[in-house]
Amino acid sequence: MLQARALVSRYGETTAVDEVSLEITDGEYVVIVGPNGSGKTTLVRHFNGLATTDEGEMLVNGTPVEEDLVAARQAVGMVFQEPRDAFVAATIGSDVAFGPRNLGLSRSEIDNRVESALAAVNLSGRQDDRIDHLSGGERERVAIAGALAMKPDHLVLDEPLTGLDEPARRAVLSRLAALHETGTSVIVVTHDLRGVLDAADRVIGMAEGRIAFDTDAKTARKELAALDVYVPPRPTRSAAERESTPAPTPGSTPLQSTAEPAPGSEIQPAPDSPSDQSTSEPE
Length: 283
Hints:
283 residues; 4-stranded antiparallel sheet; 10 strands
């Protein structure tokens, strides 16, 4: 479990996180959303001690982070907004093995963790591939594998979909959903909710360093407009689902609703997706 208790974090005279209290239990899929500068990235950097707490405390599995940084960083895996800045090796296998190797594990245990982590992100057998030859989506999955190799209880991803094309987005989202199904907590920090809003068990909205709301995805749709955050349209049936719907038998008349549409219920065109924006916050 992750617990923030009246957490305060400052950068000089600027308060980035202002008395935030929350709990995230094991196995949750949580989205933390807010505009640039809302404090969301600074908040999650406290989850494993990457940021210093000025007031309050941060606990991981009941232990204050500063009392056992190693345990906190094993329990909370972090995938940064620009994964290329965090790579430490030239090849996939060597990079994913870096964390377990620093734990002093045996060669066989390291190999097992690397293979398991790569399988989880659909990169099995690619240990020798060079990272600088990978696509953006593949690099994101390597970064996720590196975090998974530490066997974390919670996986935190800061803007994992920024700059990815649609096939890469779908691949990353699919991997996150699969990880969540295995019991790993998934915590996604983002300003772009396409594909993640309706996957979440819980949505936490932030503004000016404080929690504006903490609720389920359905209720969050009503709250997000106040944060000036783009709300994607609700998902519709996929082409495959539409094709699987049985066609009416010859001579039959499909049932049709005779009810008049409610005022204002006409389908409106969905807004264009926003272009990628810079999501950097105070470091």
